[in-house]
Specification:
Layout lengths: L1 H39 L5 H14 L1 H19 L3 E7 L10 E6 L5 E9 L8 H13 L4 E6 L5 H8 L4 E4 L1 H10 L4 E4 L2 E4 L1 H4 L5
């Protein structure tokens, strides 16, 4: 009987050891995950963060960029004392060259209809042809102002065309970042540096 008890107890001991090992593995795995998140979430300097910021926008796609831009501009207008009385995202294939339409009102009561085009690109530059088509759409829809926004940049002839217009502007990736930084949109800024705002970008983009 004594020997039988020994035989029965041995598997139990191995099971306990296995449980301890599994628990230790989970602890190590959890620690590694925490270290990875902590490393990815550490504050960056301005130049490093700007690259990450624009790349994160690009990776999340065109639909995200349209919503992101609509919210960014609404916050910007409100903080510069212009009320956004209407904001509509067109998007899609049949948007007529206009992705977002906003109506704003300033302190004097002047109302403007702003037409916005959003181009979510990593490096391809906006051409003069694209700018002319957008300007034509702004006029066709009776917009008072036009804003062409890209996460990349404008070619030289497109810039020259924009400069010839009084009611239309172009915003490239650098300018977009500066506007977002001025109102702390999509980012947390501290003395240590910059971090993405995961309420805007989602936890997967830390």
């Amino acid at each position: 009987m004594f020997n039988l008890n020994i035989i029965i107890n041995k598997p139990k001991k191995k099971k306990e050891e296995k449980t301890k090992k599994t628990s230790a593995k989970k602890t190590v795995s959890k620690a590694s995950t925490t270290q990875t998140i902590s490393k990815n979430d550490k504050p960056l300097n301005r130049d490093e963060f700007k690259k990450k910021y624009l790349t994160s926008i690009h990776e999340l796609g065109g639909d995200f960029f349209e919503k992101f831009l609509a919210n960014l501009l609404e916050k910007y207008f409100n903080e510069t004392r212009r009320d956004v009385i209407e904001s509509k995202i067109n998007g899609g294939i049949n948007d007529g060259g206009i992705d977002i339409i906003m109506k704003t009102e300033d302190e004097l009561g002047f109302v403007e209809t702003i037409m916005i085009q959003a181009k979510n690109r990593l490096s391809t530059k906006v051409t003069e042809k694209e700018m002319r088509e957008f300007y034509g759409a702004v006029n066709a829809y009776k917009g008072t102002r036009g804003i062409f926004v890209t996460t990349s940049s404008f070619c030289s002839t497109a810039k020259k065309f924009i400069e010839s217009l009084d009611n239309c502007v172009g915003i490239d990736g650098n300018k977009l970042f500066e506007i977002a930084k001025s109102i702390s949109y999509g980012m947390h800024i501290s003395k240590l540096g910059y971090k993405l705002d995961n309420m805007i970008f989602g936890l997967s983009n830390k």
